[in-house]
Amino acid sequence: MALPELLIDRFKLKHNIGTLLKLAATQNIQIHFVTKCLCAWRPVVEAIHEAGAEYFADSRVENLATIQDLGLSRMLVRIPMISQAMDTVRYADLSLNSDLTVIESLSDAALALDCKHGVILMVEMGDLREGFLPEEVLDIASRVLNLRGVWLAGIGANFNCYGGVIPEERQLEELVLLAGAIRERFAIPLPIVSGGNSGSLYLLKEGRMPTGITHLRVGEGFLTGIETSYRRSIGDMYEDVFTLRAEIVELRRKPSVPQGKIGPNSFNEIPVFEDQGNLWRAILAIGEQDTRCDTLSPKEARIGFLGASSDHMILDVTLALRDFKVGDVLEFSPDYAALLRAMTSPYVTKKLI
Ligand SMILES: *Cc1c(COP(=O)(O)O)cnc(C)c1O
User: Fold this and answer.
1) Which residue ranges does the chain devote to CATH 2.40.30?
2) Which residue puts its alpha carbon closest to atom 7 of ligand 1?
3) Which fold has domain 8-224?
4) If you measure from the C-alpha of residue 91 to the centroid of ligand 1, how many angstroms do you get, rounded to a whole number?
5) Interval 259-313: pLDDT, tens
6) What is the mean pLDDT of residues 129-137?
7) What is the CA(216)–ligand 1 centre distance, in A?
8) Which of 6, 106, 193, 337 is the most exposed place for a label (fewest CB within 10 A)?
Protein backbone atom coordinates (compact mmCIF):
# COMPACT_ATOMS: atom_id res chain seq x y z
CA MET A 1 0.00 0.00 0.00
CA ALA A 2 1.52 3.30 -1.09
CA LEU A 3 -0.07 6.36 0.44
CA PRO A 4 -1.42 8.87 -0.35
CA GLU A 5 -3.83 7.08 -2.61
CA LEU A 6 -6.80 8.10 -4.73
CA LEU A 7 -9.59 5.53 -4.93
CA ILE A 8 -11.93 5.68 -7.91
CA ASP A 9 -15.21 3.80 -7.55
CA ARG A 10 -15.89 2.07 -10.86
CA PHE A 11 -19.55 1.32 -10.15
CA LYS A 12 -20.37 4.90 -9.12
CA LEU A 13 -18.47 6.40 -12.06
CA LYS A 14 -20.27 4.15 -14.55
CA HIS A 15 -23.61 4.99 -12.96
CA ASN A 16 -22.91 8.71 -13.43
CA ILE A 17 -22.02 8.16 -17.09
CA GLY A 18 -25.27 6.26 -17.63
CA THR A 19 -27.29 9.03 -15.98
CA LEU A 20 -25.64 11.71 -18.11
CA LEU A 21 -26.11 9.75 -21.34
CA LYS A 22 -29.82 9.26 -20.56
CA LEU A 23 -30.31 12.92 -19.65
CA ALA A 24 -28.58 14.04 -22.86
CA ALA A 25 -30.52 11.60 -25.02
CA THR A 26 -33.87 13.04 -23.87
CA GLN A 27 -32.87 16.36 -25.45
CA ASN A 28 -30.94 15.03 -28.47
CA ILE A 29 -27.61 16.23 -27.13
CA GLN A 30 -24.38 14.44 -27.94
CA ILE A 31 -21.68 14.53 -25.29
CA HIS A 32 -17.93 14.40 -25.58
CA PHE A 33 -16.70 13.10 -22.21
CA VAL A 34 -13.76 15.27 -21.16
CA THR A 35 -10.97 13.19 -19.63
CA LYS A 36 -8.43 15.93 -18.86
CA CYS A 37 -9.02 15.79 -15.10
CA LEU A 38 -8.29 12.06 -15.27
CA CYS A 39 -5.16 12.51 -17.45
CA ALA A 40 -7.13 10.15 -19.72
CA TRP A 41 -5.87 7.34 -17.45
CA ARG A 42 -6.73 4.24 -19.47
CA PRO A 43 -8.38 2.07 -16.82
CA VAL A 44 -10.84 4.88 -16.04
CA VAL A 45 -11.48 5.79 -19.67
CA GLU A 46 -12.12 2.09 -20.36
CA ALA A 47 -14.70 2.06 -17.56
CA ILE A 48 -16.36 5.18 -18.99
CA HIS A 49 -16.41 3.52 -22.39
CA GLU A 50 -17.95 0.34 -20.92
CA ALA A 51 -20.69 2.53 -19.45
CA GLY A 52 -21.67 3.59 -22.96
CA ALA A 53 -19.61 6.70 -23.72
CA GLU A 54 -18.26 6.75 -27.29
CA TYR A 55 -16.98 10.32 -27.61
CA PHE A 56 -13.94 11.49 -25.65
CA ALA A 57 -12.24 14.85 -25.35
CA ASP A 58 -9.09 16.10 -23.69
CA SER A 59 -7.04 19.29 -23.52
CA ARG A 60 -3.76 17.45 -24.21
CA VAL A 61 -2.83 15.69 -27.41
CA GLU A 62 -0.58 13.39 -25.36
CA ASN A 63 -3.62 12.14 -23.44
CA LEU A 64 -5.65 11.56 -26.59
CA ALA A 65 -2.75 9.56 -28.01
CA THR A 66 -3.16 6.96 -25.25
CA ILE A 67 -6.85 6.27 -25.93
CA GLN A 68 -6.82 6.01 -29.72
CA ASP A 69 -8.58 2.66 -29.75
CA LEU A 70 -11.42 3.68 -27.42
CA GLY A 71 -14.72 5.01 -28.73
CA LEU A 72 -15.70 6.71 -31.96
CA SER A 73 -14.28 10.20 -31.60
CA ARG A 74 -11.51 12.11 -29.86
CA MET A 75 -11.76 15.89 -29.62
CA LEU A 76 -9.02 18.31 -28.58
CA VAL A 77 -10.65 20.98 -26.37
CA ARG A 78 -7.68 23.30 -25.96
CA ILE A 79 -6.93 25.45 -28.99
CA PRO A 80 -4.25 23.46 -30.86
CA MET A 81 -0.67 24.72 -30.87
CA ILE A 82 0.71 25.28 -34.36
CA SER A 83 3.80 23.36 -33.20
CA GLN A 84 1.50 20.39 -32.51
CA ALA A 85 -0.60 20.58 -35.66
CA MET A 86 0.65 17.22 -36.93
CA ASP A 87 -0.08 15.36 -33.68
CA THR A 88 -3.41 17.14 -33.30
CA VAL A 89 -4.54 15.79 -36.65
CA ARG A 90 -3.00 12.40 -35.93
CA TYR A 91 -4.68 11.90 -32.55
CA ALA A 92 -7.85 14.03 -32.70
CA ASP A 93 -10.61 13.85 -35.30
CA LEU A 94 -12.07 17.15 -34.04
CA SER A 95 -10.65 20.25 -32.38
CA LEU A 96 -11.95 23.55 -30.98
CA ASN A 97 -10.42 26.52 -32.78
CA SER A 98 -10.21 30.30 -32.55
CA ASP A 99 -7.37 31.22 -34.91
CA LEU A 100 -7.25 31.00 -38.68
CA THR A 101 -3.47 30.44 -38.89
CA VAL A 102 -3.87 27.46 -36.56
CA ILE A 103 -6.67 26.07 -38.73
CA GLU A 104 -4.50 26.52 -41.83
CA SER A 105 -1.72 24.55 -40.12
CA LEU A 106 -4.21 21.80 -39.25
CA SER A 107 -5.31 21.70 -42.88
CA ASP A 108 -1.72 21.40 -44.12
CA ALA A 109 -1.02 18.67 -41.55
CA ALA A 110 -4.15 16.77 -42.57
CA LEU A 111 -3.20 16.97 -46.26
CA ALA A 112 0.28 15.65 -45.40
CA LEU A 113 -1.28 12.77 -43.46
CA ASP A 114 -3.89 12.19 -46.13
CA CYS A 115 -6.89 12.66 -43.83
CA LYS A 116 -9.52 15.26 -43.04
CA HIS A 117 -9.75 17.02 -39.66
CA GLY A 118 -12.97 18.40 -38.20
CA VAL A 119 -12.90 22.03 -37.07
CA ILE A 120 -15.25 23.59 -34.55
CA LEU A 121 -15.15 27.38 -34.50
CA MET A 122 -15.35 28.77 -30.99
CA VAL A 123 -17.40 31.93 -30.59
CA GLU A 124 -16.80 34.50 -27.85
CA MET A 125 -20.03 34.78 -25.85
CA GLY A 126 -18.94 36.79 -22.84
CA ASP A 127 -16.67 34.59 -20.73
CA LEU A 128 -13.62 36.06 -22.52
CA ARG A 129 -11.51 33.00 -22.96
CA GLU A 130 -11.22 31.47 -26.44
CA GLY A 131 -13.37 32.40 -29.40
CA PHE A 132 -13.85 34.47 -32.56
CA LEU A 133 -16.11 37.49 -32.17
CA PRO A 134 -19.63 36.66 -33.40
CA GLU A 135 -19.37 39.20 -36.24
CA GLU A 136 -16.22 37.47 -37.57
CA VAL A 137 -17.66 33.98 -37.73
CA LEU A 138 -19.32 33.99 -41.19
CA ASP A 139 -16.17 35.31 -42.83
CA ILE A 140 -13.96 32.78 -40.97
CA ALA A 141 -16.35 29.98 -41.92
CA SER A 142 -16.01 30.84 -45.61
CA ARG A 143 -12.21 30.78 -45.32
CA VAL A 144 -12.27 27.43 -43.51
CA LEU A 145 -14.49 26.01 -46.23
CA ASN A 146 -11.76 26.85 -48.76
CA LEU A 147 -9.16 24.72 -46.93
CA ARG A 148 -8.87 21.20 -48.30
CA GLY A 149 -7.54 19.40 -45.21
CA VAL A 150 -10.33 20.35 -42.82
CA TRP A 151 -14.11 20.22 -42.74
CA LEU A 152 -16.30 22.62 -40.81
CA ALA A 153 -17.96 20.39 -38.20
CA GLY A 154 -19.58 23.02 -36.04
CA ILE A 155 -19.44 26.04 -33.80
CA GLY A 156 -19.27 26.23 -30.04
CA ALA A 157 -18.88 28.45 -27.01
CA ASN A 158 -17.22 28.17 -23.64
CA PHE A 159 -18.49 29.54 -20.32
CA ASN A 160 -17.78 29.29 -16.57
CA CYS A 161 -14.02 29.57 -17.04
CA TYR A 162 -12.11 32.86 -17.18
CA GLY A 163 -15.03 35.18 -16.55
CA GLY A 164 -17.22 32.79 -14.58
CA VAL A 165 -20.05 33.68 -16.98
CA ILE A 166 -23.07 31.39 -16.58
CA PRO A 167 -24.51 30.14 -19.89
CA GLU A 168 -28.16 31.13 -20.24
CA GLU A 169 -30.78 30.64 -22.94
CA ARG A 170 -29.96 34.07 -24.42
CA GLN A 171 -26.34 33.28 -25.41
CA LEU A 172 -27.12 29.74 -26.50
CA GLU A 173 -30.00 30.91 -28.70
CA GLU A 174 -27.58 33.39 -30.30
CA LEU A 175 -25.21 30.50 -30.99
CA VAL A 176 -28.05 28.51 -32.59
CA LEU A 177 -28.95 31.50 -34.79
CA LEU A 178 -25.34 31.84 -35.88
CA ALA A 179 -25.23 28.14 -36.78
CA GLY A 180 -28.41 28.61 -38.82
CA ALA A 181 -26.86 31.54 -40.67
CA ILE A 182 -23.77 29.48 -41.56
CA ARG A 183 -25.87 26.53 -42.75
CA GLU A 184 -27.97 28.78 -44.91
CA ARG A 185 -25.14 30.83 -46.40
CA PHE A 186 -22.91 27.87 -47.29
CA ALA A 187 -25.44 25.02 -47.60
CA ILE A 188 -23.55 22.73 -45.21
CA PRO A 189 -24.93 20.48 -42.44
CA LEU A 190 -22.80 21.91 -39.57
CA PRO A 191 -23.83 19.12 -37.18
CA ILE A 192 -22.18 20.35 -33.98
CA VAL A 193 -23.51 23.32 -32.03
CA SER A 194 -21.56 22.94 -28.79
CA GLY A 195 -23.24 24.77 -25.92
CA GLY A 196 -20.58 24.61 -23.24
CA ASN A 197 -19.28 22.42 -20.42
CA SER A 198 -20.59 21.18 -17.05
CA GLY A 199 -21.91 24.68 -16.42
CA SER A 200 -24.60 24.06 -19.06
CA LEU A 201 -25.90 20.92 -17.36
CA TYR A 202 -28.37 22.85 -15.21
CA LEU A 203 -30.22 23.82 -18.42
CA LEU A 204 -30.32 20.19 -19.49
CA LYS A 205 -31.56 19.11 -16.07
CA GLU A 206 -34.30 21.75 -16.04
CA GLY A 207 -35.31 20.98 -19.64
CA ARG A 208 -34.36 24.53 -20.68
CA MET A 209 -31.64 23.76 -23.23
CA PRO A 210 -32.51 25.79 -26.34
CA THR A 211 -33.48 23.66 -29.36
CA GLY A 212 -30.64 23.60 -31.82
CA ILE A 213 -27.89 23.06 -29.25
CA THR A 214 -26.70 19.59 -30.27
CA HIS A 215 -23.58 19.04 -28.21
CA LEU A 216 -21.86 19.55 -24.84
CA ARG A 217 -18.34 18.89 -23.59
CA VAL A 218 -18.61 17.55 -20.06
CA GLY A 219 -15.84 16.76 -17.59
CA GLU A 220 -16.51 17.75 -14.00
CA GLY A 221 -20.25 16.93 -14.09
CA PHE A 222 -19.94 13.16 -14.29
CA LEU A 223 -16.95 13.09 -11.90
CA THR A 224 -18.45 15.10 -9.04
CA GLY A 225 -22.19 14.86 -9.82
CA ILE A 226 -22.43 18.67 -9.65
CA GLU A 227 -23.28 21.22 -12.36
CA THR A 228 -20.80 24.06 -12.23
CA SER A 229 -23.00 27.14 -12.75
CA TYR A 230 -24.88 27.03 -9.44
CA ARG A 231 -22.95 24.10 -7.92
CA ARG A 232 -26.11 22.09 -7.41
CA SER A 233 -26.55 18.33 -7.67
CA ILE A 234 -27.36 17.07 -11.15
CA GLY A 235 -29.47 14.31 -9.62
CA ASP A 236 -29.22 10.51 -9.79
CA MET A 237 -25.44 10.79 -9.65
CA TYR A 238 -22.95 9.76 -6.99
CA GLU A 239 -21.02 12.69 -5.60
CA ASP A 240 -18.39 10.50 -3.95
CA VAL A 241 -16.78 8.68 -6.85
CA PHE A 242 -13.32 9.67 -5.56
CA THR A 243 -11.71 9.17 -2.14
CA LEU A 244 -8.28 10.48 -1.22
CA ARG A 245 -6.51 8.68 1.66
CA ALA A 246 -3.54 9.91 3.68
CA GLU A 247 -1.73 8.78 6.81
CA ILE A 248 -1.14 10.53 10.14
CA VAL A 249 2.58 10.87 10.91
CA GLU A 250 2.38 13.09 14.00
CA LEU A 251 -0.38 13.66 16.53
CA ARG A 252 0.29 16.13 19.34
CA ARG A 253 -1.30 18.87 21.41
CA LYS A 254 0.32 22.20 20.55
CA PRO A 255 -0.54 25.90 20.82
CA SER A 256 -2.61 27.39 17.99
CA VAL A 257 -0.34 30.44 17.63
CA PRO A 258 3.32 30.08 16.56
CA GLN A 259 5.97 31.53 18.83
CA GLY A 260 8.75 33.79 17.59
CA LYS A 261 9.12 36.54 15.02
CA ILE A 262 6.75 35.73 12.11
CA GLY A 263 8.08 35.82 8.54
CA PRO A 264 6.88 34.20 5.30
CA ASN A 265 5.66 30.58 5.38
CA SER A 266 6.67 27.91 2.85
CA PHE A 267 4.65 29.62 0.08
CA ASN A 268 6.00 33.12 0.84
CA GLU A 269 2.80 34.29 2.54
CA ILE A 270 2.76 35.90 5.97
CA PRO A 271 0.42 33.69 7.99
CA VAL A 272 -2.08 35.09 10.50
CA PHE A 273 -3.29 33.08 13.50
CA GLU A 274 -6.19 33.26 15.91
CA ASP A 275 -5.53 32.10 19.47
CA GLN A 276 -7.70 29.06 20.11
CA GLY A 277 -5.59 27.76 22.98
CA ASN A 278 -3.98 24.36 22.66
CA LEU A 279 -5.18 22.12 19.83
CA TRP A 280 -4.81 18.45 19.02
CA ARG A 281 -3.07 18.62 15.68
CA ALA A 282 -2.58 15.78 13.24
CA ILE A 283 0.14 16.03 10.62
CA LEU A 284 -0.66 13.97 7.52
CA ALA A 285 1.81 12.76 4.92
CA ILE A 286 0.18 14.62 2.05
CA GLY A 287 0.80 18.14 0.75
CA GLU A 288 0.56 20.59 -2.08
CA GLN A 289 2.69 18.28 -4.26
CA ASP A 290 -0.06 15.69 -4.03
CA THR A 291 -3.28 17.66 -4.12
CA ARG A 292 -4.89 20.96 -3.22
CA CYS A 293 -5.17 20.60 0.54
CA ASP A 294 -7.41 23.46 1.67
CA THR A 295 -10.43 22.35 -0.38
CA LEU A 296 -10.38 18.69 0.69
CA SER A 297 -13.47 17.64 2.67
CA PRO A 298 -12.70 15.17 5.46
CA LYS A 299 -15.16 12.27 5.43
CA GLU A 300 -15.29 12.35 9.23
CA ALA A 301 -17.04 15.17 11.05
CA ARG A 302 -15.49 17.90 13.17
CA ILE A 303 -12.03 17.96 11.61
CA GLY A 304 -10.63 21.38 10.69
CA PHE A 305 -7.95 22.44 8.23
CA LEU A 306 -5.03 24.39 9.74
CA GLY A 307 -2.48 24.56 6.95
CA ALA A 308 -0.38 22.77 4.38
CA SER A 309 3.08 22.92 2.84
CA SER A 310 4.64 20.91 0.01
CA ASP A 311 4.46 17.56 1.81
CA HIS A 312 2.56 18.08 5.07
CA MET A 313 -1.05 18.89 5.89
CA ILE A 314 -1.97 19.94 9.42
CA LEU A 315 -5.49 19.26 10.70
CA ASP A 316 -7.24 20.26 13.90
CA VAL A 317 -8.66 17.06 15.39
CA THR A 318 -9.41 18.47 18.87
CA LEU A 319 -13.17 17.96 18.46
CA ALA A 320 -13.03 14.83 16.29
CA LEU A 321 -15.41 12.04 17.19
CA ARG A 322 -12.78 9.35 17.62
CA ASP A 323 -9.28 9.09 19.02
CA PHE A 324 -6.72 9.00 16.28
CA LYS A 325 -3.22 7.61 16.51
CA VAL A 326 -0.13 7.89 14.37
CA GLY A 327 -0.44 5.47 11.44
CA ASP A 328 -4.23 5.95 11.10
CA VAL A 329 -5.48 6.77 7.62
CA LEU A 330 -7.94 9.62 7.04
CA GLU A 331 -10.26 9.81 4.05
CA PHE A 332 -11.23 12.92 2.10
CA SER A 333 -13.52 13.87 -0.78
CA PRO A 334 -11.54 15.92 -3.29
CA ASP A 335 -13.20 18.76 -5.20
CA TYR A 336 -12.28 19.32 -8.89
CA ALA A 337 -9.10 21.30 -8.09
CA ALA A 338 -7.90 18.71 -5.57
CA LEU A 339 -8.77 15.87 -7.94
CA LEU A 340 -6.94 17.50 -10.85
CA ARG A 341 -3.75 17.83 -8.85
CA ALA A 342 -4.03 14.35 -7.32
CA MET A 343 -4.45 12.78 -10.77
CA THR A 344 -1.47 14.68 -12.18
CA SER A 345 0.79 14.05 -9.18
CA PRO A 346 3.17 11.11 -9.59
CA TYR A 347 3.22 10.75 -5.78
CA VAL A 348 -0.44 9.72 -5.50
CA THR A 349 -1.28 6.06 -6.11
CA LYS A 350 -4.40 5.74 -8.29
CA LYS A 351 -6.67 2.78 -7.83
CA LEU A 352 -9.82 1.93 -9.73
CA ILE A 353 -11.82 -0.26 -7.34
C1 LIG B 1 -12.20 21.55 -19.70
C2 LIG B 1 -13.07 21.96 -20.79
C3 LIG B 1 -14.37 21.46 -20.85
C4 LIG B 1 -14.95 20.57 -19.77
O5 LIG B 1 -15.25 21.38 -18.66
P6 LIG B 1 -15.95 20.80 -17.36
O7 LIG B 1 -16.25 21.99 -16.53
O8 LIG B 1 -14.97 19.88 -16.74
O9 LIG B 1 -17.18 20.09 -17.80
C10 LIG B 1 -15.14 21.83 -21.93
N11 LIG B 1 -14.68 22.67 -22.88
C12 LIG B 1 -13.45 23.18 -22.84
C13 LIG B 1 -13.01 24.11 -23.92
C14 LIG B 1 -12.60 22.85 -21.79
O15 LIG B 1 -11.36 23.37 -21.75
Assistant:
1) 242-352
2) 198
3) TIM Barrel (3.20.20)
4) 19
5) 999 998 888 888 889 999 999 999 999 999 999 999 999 999 999 999 999 999 9
6) 97
7) 9
8) 337
* One-letter-per-residue 3-state SS of the chain: CCCCEEEECHHHHHHHHHHHHHHHHHCCCEEEEECHHHCCCHHHHHHHHHCCCCEEEECCHHHHHCCCCCCCEEEECCCCCHHHHHHHHHHCCEEEECCHHHHHHHHHHHHHCCCCEEEEEEECCCCCCCCECHHHHHHHHHHHHCCCCEEEEEEECCCCCCCCCCCCHHHHHHHHHHHHHHHHHHCCCCCEEECCCHHHHHHHHCCCCCCCCCEEEECHHHHHCECCCCCCECCCCCCCCEEEEEEEEEEEEEECCCCCCCCCCCCCCCCCCCCCCEEEEEEECCCCCCCCCCCCEECCCCCEEEEECCCCEEEECCCCCCCCCCCCEEEEECCHHHHHHHHHCCCCEEEEC
- Class level of CATH domain 242-352: mainly beta
What's the gap in Å between 35 CA and the centre of ligand 1?
Answer: 9
